[in-house]
């Protein structure tokens, strides 16, 4: 694995925003290293774009690639209250703001597409399916259990597709996920028949 400055991370991890962003960066770097190491084919999909920072970081780690970077978001903030967030949190964004941020910070001009809509809307689902039929990386950053559940419903066909390919080739059909560690447990429980 490439060297990463874990000493810097350990020194600064108690500063909330630094810990959060550096931790994300290190996680993305590890996952993208695995994608490249195993030559995993597919595009990148993010649920919860906000202002585009994660897609920008993931793009910078990938470098020049033929993969498409797809981001889905309402660009209106959260649709409901949760235990820690209030309805409308993260509404300090817009489709245009995120688009310009990404466009201005994709130095290698990789392809990207932003999809505006709620994850429980058929149009959002259809737009995602029309953009790609193969994913290698899915980043869940929806901040709500209900939104993440809707996102999991959207990715189910991608998981089934990977399973079919794996059986057909006798190899490994991988999709790598980023977010909190629990998402992997939820995915395995929800889709256990697919693994």
Structure in words:
This protein is an alpha/beta fold. It has a single domain (41-194), classed as 3-Layer(aba) Sandwich (Rossmann fold), CATH 3.40.50.150. It has 7 helices and 5 strands; from the N terminus they run ααβαβαβαβαβα. It has a 5-stranded parallel β-sheet, sandwiched between helices. Strand 1 (43-47), helix 3 (53-62) and strand 2 (68-73) form a beta-alpha-beta unit. Helix 2 crosses helix 3. The chain is globular, with a radius of gyration of 17 Å.
Helix content class: 40-55%
* Main sheet: strands, sense, barrel: 5 strands, parallel
State the separation between the terminal residues, measured CA to CA: 26 Å
CATH superfamily: Vaccinia Virus protein VP39
Please give the order of strands in the largest beta sheet.
3-2-1-4-5
Derived from helix and strand composition plus strand pairing, the structural class reads alpha/beta
**CATH-level-2 architecture:** 3-Layer(aba) Sandwich
Lay out the secondary structure.
Blueprint: H1 6-12, H2 16-37, E1 43-47, H3 53-62, E2 68-73, H4 95-105, E3 111-116, H5 122-131, E4 135-140, H6 145-169, E5 176-178, H7 182-190
Parallel strand pairs: 1-2, 1-4, 2-3, 4-5
